[in-house]
Amino acid sequence: MILEMLRRGSRVLKQSNPGQTVTFRKIVFLLMLLSIALVLVFRNSSEKSSTVSGISLKKWDSFNSLVHLDPTVEFRNGTDLISQIPDSPRGVLFLAHGCNGRAANFWDKSPKCKNCVGLPEERLVVLHALARKFAVLAVSSTRRCWTFGDELLKVKDIVKWWIAKEKLEKLPLVALGASSGGHFVSLLATKLNFSSIALMIAEGMFGQMDISASYPPTLFVHMPKDEERKQRIDNYLVVLKDKGIDVAEIKCMEFPLSPSYFSDVIPGIDRSISVKLFNLFKEKGFIDKNGYMTKDGRAIRWKAALQERDITLPDKSLFHHIQEEMNLAYAKHEMTSLQSEEILDWFESHMS
């Protein structure tokens, strides 16, 4: 329609005096700007589509040319710790898992780590960090979830011991904790000198601590679909800012699945199985016509659906991997690697 208007306008101006050519060009330029603006408005009119824009989806093997997972497993203070140090590290990243998690979730199973699991989001978080030259240290909680008493002192000792052992004392120390691990990191930040921290799907324990101006810059990485948590985070953003602490947030929104999604992000799932999963989930109403999850993956009997359809996975452990990605796509409460670059940018912006 706009092009037709321009053609008609061109014919009219050609029949008029030549002095109107400049005016016509201005009109064309303004109409082009208007059309671009309209495209952007319609593109952002849907929250679902706008939240996906800007997110760089990394496939499970995206980092093969840059870095490989090569963990070192150790044991100290009654728990296991797993680490990896890239060449010429520029910082140290401490990782704290959520409830039911463990350090082994962040690295693939290998001869060096026979108990490692390599959950898709956790492993990508580590790969992102290693590619950006962060030494990575993950510690397992001694119970199902992190506790906030003696465990804080035990982990403080582990982190300081490991940094000294690896001669990394001169490097900035940062931390990322998810869910229970996010609450833990918020308290650990009063015990260790982090240059900045990121709390993922967690509002932190700020209501139970005295916050001083020396508290590290804090990034909240959260999923607004969890409205109660979002309200608490909104409150703490104000509280911390009023204390003179640098704060920011990253909102993680739902996104649509595609037929190849599971094979793109999960090692061990090939495209044919991924397509079968996608088609089955769509047929069962687990995802809508646009590919969005209709419920959190935890609330869906998708494993029973696989058995009914006689879809067999190469390894039973992959159930956990698929579950994680379904939860992530629904975007209410799950570990995510999708915003890793933004999180690492935050860390680097506060490293002196």
TrEMBL record:
Transmembrane helix in keyword set: yes
Domain of life: Eukaryota
Gene3D superfamilies: alpha/beta hydrolase
UniProt keywords, alphabetically: Membrane, Transmembrane, Transmembrane helix
Membrane-spanning parts: 21-42
Name the record gives this protein: Uncharacterized protein
